[in-house]
Amino acid sequence: MKVLQVAAEGSPFLKTGGLADVIGALPKALKESGVDVRVIMPRYKNIPETYRNRMEYLGNIEVPLAWRRVYCGLFKLVYDGVVFYFIDNEYYFGARDGAYGYYDDGERFAYFNRAVLQALPELEFQPDIIHSHDWHAAMIAVLMQKHYLHDLFYTSIRTVYTIHNLQFQGIYPYGVFNELLGLTHDYFQYDRVEHEGCVNFMKGGINYSDIVTTVSRTYADEIRTPHFGEGLDGALRWAGGRLRGIVNGIDDQLYDPRSDAKLFQMYSEEDAIQGKAANKKELQRLVGLDVNESVPLIGMVGRLTDQKGLDLVAHVLHEVMEADDVQLVVLGTGDDRYEQMFRDYAARYPGKLAVQTKFDDGLARQIYAASDLFLMPSRFEPCGLSQLLALRYGSIPIVRETGGLNDTVQAYNEFTGEGNGFSFTNYNAHDMLYTIRRAIAFYTRSDDWQRLVRTAMSGDYSWTESARQYREIYEELIERRIQQLEAQAADAEAAAADNRLIADNDVVEQSIARSDLSEDSQRARPTAGLSPQVL
After folding, report:
1. Stretch 426-443: mean pLDDT, rounded?
2. Span 380-401, pLDDT tens digits
3. Which among 29, 465, 516, 529 has the fewest CB atoms less than 10 Å away?
4. Domains of the chain, with CATH numbers?
5. pLDDT tens digits along 139-178
6. What angle do CA 101, 107, 110 make, to 5 degrees?
7. How far apart, in whole angstroms, are the C-alpha atoms of residue 119 and residue 382?
8. Which residue would you say has higher pLDDT here, 359 or 516?
């Protein structure tokens, strides 16, 4: 089985968000399961020189883009056993910082989609499946149907499209559609790629891909509704059984408290309580909290935005700081008002709240290891990785029951001992506050808490199960393709048999006709020599 993953970013080459983590980890897990998986992405300026210098130049092609034919260089690098291909164009990718945020992103990624398809024969890799990720690669299935299915190289390829964040859809004016994608007007319809008078890359991926996935089962259900669907709920409902949900995983070798050198002290499931206490004291010293290993420490790591539930936190933070014996450590950047809010509270409650408005992977790991609880009250969350990392390091999540948070965190049941965290349903600040206080209450119960930490750390949060589910989807599409080919062959054979039968009938009918003519002729001959009197 051959699979090509298409994405705009991938770790360790370039990362702006969780998509890069997926592209860095999922192919490795698929390869371990026996899939010949490869990745293709742009060759950005900001890819570290250590990787750029190791890339092998494969050649170049021309990519049709409207009336132009545009240069495309092809590079290759093997990383962790996975082949990565890179689309090189100095104007679109090689001379710009970062990945997105340019006025011509529509043109840049229209080019990228077309270049991927144009490059495949030159790469000497004919995939069974092209698996595209997010809006940047969403037009692969559309362009393949329009421009490439006449070529036998492409006719057997099937497509999978994964939505990581429905908020970013790749919506651009009609000119991008007509001028750059080379699509005829019949594609610019509401049930195809048109959305409110513009071309919508993501909508094209949803409507034209053989199977559409998103990054959790709950989120797959949520986005079929107007509240979560971001204007595409109709297309997602129409997708029906083609829409599936598969939870992301994490790289459990990269994130392992037993071997993570960035921690103050490494620990395992067996000595987690002691190990986390040691990490807590060191983190408290580092960020300026009162050093007290018995006080529950809540961690928050991530973007400081409304989507992450920071408006709920703002409503009750004063109450928590005043009334509860608890500490809070926050790491992240985002909206100015939330960054300033935490700075103000850190100044007002020194020793109880500390904030670092930056991103620091080492400090993030130290917070996961040191914190007792991890707060993630998201308004919506397609999957979420922070709660998985918190569980891996034995920090018990407090989450709202939405998207991937609902699929990965099960509320603790003190009567059965089941569950790995705490959760609340309604998007309500005081529901969240009640849940925080419930979690703090269980923190003081040693037996319950040790059970919770053991359960959290013993869970399987790796990509193994996710990769198995993706492989099942690939196998389903390949089997469907085989069945289609067999059905086509059967239809062709039936048509040939019908043609033979028709031909045989024609022969019989012609033979009968000749026989009838012969008999008529035989009857006619004697009468020719008889006299009129006899007749």
Report:
1. 97
2. 999 999 999 999 999 999 999 9
3. 529
4. 2-246 (3.40.50.2000), 272-462 (3.40.50.2000)
5. 999 999 999 999 999 999 999 999 998 989 999 988 777 7
6. 110
7. 32
8. 359
In this structure, are strands 68-79 and 56-65 parallel, antiparallel, or unpaired? antiparallel
Spatial CA neighbour of 453 closest among 407, 392, 409, 410:
392
Place of tokens 């051959």: 2
Concatenate the DSSP letters of all residues of 5-33 into one string.
EE-S-BTTTB-SSHHHHHHHHHHHHHHHT
Region 73-98: mean pLDDT is 96
CB-based contacts of 139, cutoff 8 Å, min separation 6: 109, 110, 113, 181, 193, 201, 204, 205
Contact present, 433 and 319 (Cβ < 8 Å)? yes
Distance CA 153, CA 376 (A): 47
Give me the pLDDT at residue 245, please.
97
Q: Minimal CA–CA distance to 76: which of 61, 99, 93, 55?
A: 55
pLDDT in tens, 319-358: 999 988 999 999 999 999 999 999 999 999 999 999 999 9
- Given a cut of 50, whether residue 115 has pLDDT beyond it is yes
Two tokens, residue 299: 């961690």
CB 420 within 8 A of CB 451: no
- At 493, the amino acid letter reads E
Q: Is the pTM of this model over 0.85?
A: yes
pLDDT score, position 291: 97
Instruction: Respond yes or no on whether the N-terminal peptide bond of residue 12 is cis (omega within 30° of 0).
Output: yes
Burial of 125 (0-12, 13-18, 19+ CB in 10 A): middle
Q: d(Cα 479, Cα 473) in Å, to the nearest integer?
A: 10
CA atoms of 485 and 468, how far apart (whole Å): 26
- Residue 163: enclosing H or E segment and its boundaries? strand 158-163
- Over its C-alpha atoms, the chain yields an Rg (Å, rounded) of 31
> How many helices (DSSP H) and strands (DSSP E) are in the chain?
18, 18
Q: Is 324 left (phi over 0), alpha (psi -120 to 50) or beta?
A: beta
Q: What is the mean pLDDT of the chain?
A: 92
Q: Which of 122, 144, 35 is nearest to 464 (CA)?
A: 35
Query: Closest by alpha carbon to 201, among 112, 307, 102?
Result: 112
> CA distances (Å), 261 to each of 392, 393, 501, in order?
15, 13, 77
pLDDT score, position 528: 46
